[in-house]
Amino acid sequence: MLIDGVWTANWQPVQGVDAKGGFVRQTSSFRHWVTPDGAPGPTGEGGFKAEAGRYHIYVALICPWATRTLIARALKGLEDIVSISIASPAIGDFGWAFDGYPGATRDTVNGASFLHEIYTRADPHFTGRATVPVLWDRRRNTIVNNESADILRIFNSGFGDLASSTPDLYPEALRAEIDALNAEIYPKLNNGVYRAGFATTQIAYDEAFADVFAMLDALEKRMATRRFLVGEVLTEADIRLFVTLARFDAAYHGLFKCNKRRIADYAALSRYFAELFEREAFRKTFSLDHIQRGYYSIKTLNPSGIVPRGPELEWARASSD
Ligand SMILES: N[C@@H](CCC(=O)N[C@@H](CS)C(=O)NCC(=O)O)C(=O)O
């Protein structure tokens, strides 16, 4: 992580630990919003007007939070409006790197070798972890926002007419239901798998494991009679669930010890997942190679660095061939 703008060597995966040995994720620190006229958004300052070619997003394809912003970027037709840099999947001593790994990119905007350079460019005294995703403003040379939940909504409506109006990923009438689902699914499942994987005590792991499978069981019931999570339309809630389902059998089941069941064992969730995966925005932002290589490069969990050959995921192999 960075301390007062200086990188402290040896990246470690665990962000923070609570009294029981549970994993605690750092809160995001840049919270400005791009808006159609540059007016301030719900948090942060104004001055970030939507413009083609002005903004850039730094991501890693292993990261579920970064990938949810990429799915939204594709669904909203923003790929020619917001450019992108993709970090290499294996996170090393200096954090995320832009070193030309297949399927990744260099940093064409700032020429950085490591993501932490982007943070100190925005704030020379930054203290915290250099996380993806990062939404960067070329004009003001700073980070607009590094919270994926915000970036999803910025891509949904902050770019005004530069983005396509459909799908509306956060429709006014469904907001309360989407917010309530997010508030349950994020701690129990999206972050629950990390809480299981990075637990440092049995009790913290047991609690996280129970949350993960209670949430999956509840979602299996919910999806037995529905096409999408909320109402009859695709929303941000589906994107946020998809990114965790997409990584589950390939990484969380093995490396994070979330091994009571696989997604493949849930009939309704598998059907729902397949329907989303048929869409280009979901399929092309998914890389099984980056996901497996990235997660299995976390040395504290997998010292040998060996990447498993399985499981056989027909849907995933077909997309990466
Ligand atoms: N709140 C952030 C969390 C992002 C996050 O934790 N990203 C992870 C990758 S999945 C990261 O970059 N970790 C690097 C680190 O912790 O040093 C968001 O959702 O945007």
Fold blueprint:
Blueprint: E1 2-3, E2 6-7, E3 55-60, H1 64-75, E4 83-87, H2 116-122, E5 134-137, E6 142-145, H3 148-158, H4 175-190, H5 192-197, H6 202-223, H7 236-252, H8 267-277, H9 280-283, H10 288-295, H11 314-320
Parallel strand pairs: 3-4
Antiparallel strand pairs: 1-2, 3-5, 5-6
Summarize the structure.
With 321 residues, the protein is of the alpha+beta class.
Bound small molecules, which ones?
glutathione
Average pLDDT reading: 95
Shape: globular
Summarize the amount of helix as a percent range. 25-40%
Strand content: 5-15%
For the sheet with most strands, the description reads: 4 strands, mixed
Give the strand tally.
6
The computed structural class is: alpha+beta
**Order of adjacent strands in the largest pleated sheet:** 4-3-5-6
- Radius of gyration from CA coordinates: 19 Å
Uncertain runs are none
Helix segment count? 11
Order of helices and strands: EEEHEHEEHHHHHHHHH
Report how far apart the termini are.
36 Å
Verbal overview:
With 321 residues, the chain is an alpha+beta fold. The chain is built from eleven helices and six strands. It has helices at residues 64-75, 116-122, 148-158, 175-190, 192-197, 202-223, 236-252, 267-277, 280-283, 288-295, 314-320; strands spanning 2-3, 6-7, 55-60, 83-87, 134-137, 142-145. It has a four-stranded mixed sheet, with helices on both faces. Strands 1-2 form a two-stranded antiparallel ribbon. A hairpin with a 4-residue loop joins strand 5 and strand 6 (142-145). Helix 4 runs parallel beside helix 7. The site of glutathione has 15 residues, from loops.
